[in-house]
Amino acid sequence: MKNELDQPVTIHWHGYPVPVDMDGVPGVTQNAVKPGESFQYSFTATVPGTYWYHSHYKSAEQVDLGLYGALIVEGDRQTELDRDYTFILDEMNSKGKAGSKGMMGSSNDDLFTVNGKSGDLISAYEIQTGENVRLRFINAGYITHYMNLGSIEYRVVAVDGQAVMDPQIIQNKLLPVGPGERYDVEFTAPDSSFFIREMLNTPAADGLIIPLINRTSKKTLDETEYDGIFTLTGSGIATEYASLASNKYDQEYKMVLSHGMKGMGMIYTINGRTYPDIDPLDVKRGDIIKVTLESKDMMFDHPMHLHGHFFQVLSKDGSPVEDGAIFKDTLVVKPGEKYELAFIANNPGEWMFHCHDLNHASSGMMTSVLYDGYAIPSHIDQSQPSE
Ligand SMILES: [Cu+2]
To answer: Are the beta carbons of 350 and 294 closer than 8 angstroms?
Structure first.
């Protein structure tokens, strides 16, 4: 990567389990790459799935202004696909402003985009009757987008890059894609064209309509009603890893998420504190770790993202997730919700664990998972902003 910007930059490979020195966190895993300088990121692409990459330097500005892209690691089933489309969802400001949230969390963004485009500028994506189509949704923005896939029957075949073992047929349910999350869906192309629509009740949603065009058909599926929202829990799905649900845990941590005021601005807190004054989660290599994420924030969603690892969602609001092991790297914690997670400490280093509303991260909601015996290399200047 060569930095031709007039400010420093790094690249974080969101979701992909890279070695720690490739993780792209300034002041923790590397020095920010100064204007005119270069940095070589290298890692092996052995874990198939849908990931993305983005700046981790002043990311609330740099990601908001578009410094991101998709990272697709193709899997064994790639040859079975006739079409494979990636849709990166985002919100933008038509006046080109960054830092898109006001002090009280209200958004100034007036455009919803897919692959950087909105409204009539959105490309048409071709399908032909009977084709096996995969769509990869990635959310690079700050709010959950609720996608209506028309009346087609689809399967959610991967979540945050991780293959689902027994994907069930879903129909007339909105697909919610939270900040930082990825959902891969597959379907057999119908004998008609159809539209994918964002269903949030805001004018910006009207500009996020993705046409899937079947040129051999004159039919277009009607705009459909929907009767619910796809949820991970209770959908009879499971990813391919062995469940950690009945394990004994080597360490247990609790992270209470909230917000408050400091001076004239908002702060977003973990256990009442802001980064870097939050104790890291200390782990040893090989440990199985349990983390309770509890929102005592009655206003804001907090899409919590762990670098370098996949975690299993064990329970939500006290009810165990019984349909199998769901492994993710980003989890939207809505106001008042409580989740239990577990992960295996299998990637030594220091790894950020933060809110992926990047304004919340830069205003305090960030901590790290720190391996026993690991220290930040001495050549890294720890005074740099890490978010
Ligand atoms: Cu947050």
So the answer is: no
Among candidate residues 28, 157, 145, the one with its CA nearest the CA of residue 89: 145
Report how far ligand 1's centroid is from the alpha carbon of 162 (Å).
Answer: 23
Spacing, Cα 154 to ligand 1 middle (Å): 30
Q: How far is the CA of 124 from the centre of ligand 1 (A)?
A: 34
| Rounded Cα–Cα distance for residues 106 and 261 (Å) | 16
Compute, in angstroms, the gap from residue 142 CA to the centroid of ligand 1: 9
Whole-model pTM? 0.95
For residue 12, how far is its CA from the centre of ligand 1 (angstroms)?
18
CA 336 to centroid of ligand 1, rounded, Å: 13
From first to last of its 387 residues, what are the pLDDT tens digits of the chain?
999 999 999 999 999 999 999 999 999 999 999 999 999 999 999 999 999 999 999 998 999 989 999 999 998 888 899 999 999 999 998 877 665 454 444 467 889 999 999 999 999 999 999 999 999 999 999 999 999 998 899 999 999 999 888 888 999 999 999 999 999 999 999 999 999 999 999 999 999 999 999 999 999 987 778 989 998 765 556 677 788 988 899 999 999 999 999 988 899 999 999 999 999 999 999 999 999 999 999 999 999 999 999 999 999 999 888 767 789 999 999 999 999 999 999 999 999 999 999 999 999 999 999 999 999 999 999 999 898
Q: How many CB atoms lie within 10 A of CB 227?
A: 9
337 CA to middle of ligand 1, Å? 13
Domains and CATH numbers, the chain: 81-230 (2.60.40.420), 251-371 (2.60.40.420)
Could you tell me the distance, in angstroms and rounded to a whole number, from the CA of residue 26 to the centre of ligand 1?
20
Longest distance between any two alpha carbons in the chain, whole Å = 64
Å from CA of 355 to ligand 1 middle: 5
1: which DSSP letter? -
Strand ranges across the sheet with 330-333: 281-283, 366-371, 350-355, 302-306, 330-333
